[in-house]
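Q: I have 156 residues here and want to know how they pack in 3D. Can you give me a structure?
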Amino acid sequence: MAEPLASLARRLGTRSWVMAAAPGIIAADQALHRWFGGRVSLVGLAGLPSLRLTTVGRRSGLPRSTNLLYFPHGADFVLTGSNWGRPRNPAWTFNLRARPEAEVAIRGRVTAVKVRELEGEEYRRMWAELLGFWPGYEMERAAAGRVLPVFVLSPR
């Protein structure tokens, strides 16, 4: 049953009104995370891979967590800093650049990861794969008016 939901989610993800609904979607996802101890996410309910990224704040030094869609790539987790098509990169991208290590939690299971940002030809190849996985990234890139950063997180 997850595949039809994932296909629907991918189609809806190419609609501009979804970007406008981002605050509500984020709030619902955070509530699900709290209620179910990290085992349930809105993205996961849609049949898509979801993780909770915890970075260290580059200024505060405090843990910062956010729920994100990710692209599974072998043993790695690939994240795109789309920020729902906003002009500025999401805060977690700055944290990862300042300290390229983090933790990811999937259904409550935590994994320490090392992080690297993709560039050049490696970025272009991964971007093509990402668009096959989540076509809405192209709409978000156009709306943001910036190159969307892509990070590969590998288990340590």
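Q: Anything worth noting?
A: The chain has seven helices and seven strands. The chain has one domain: 2-155.
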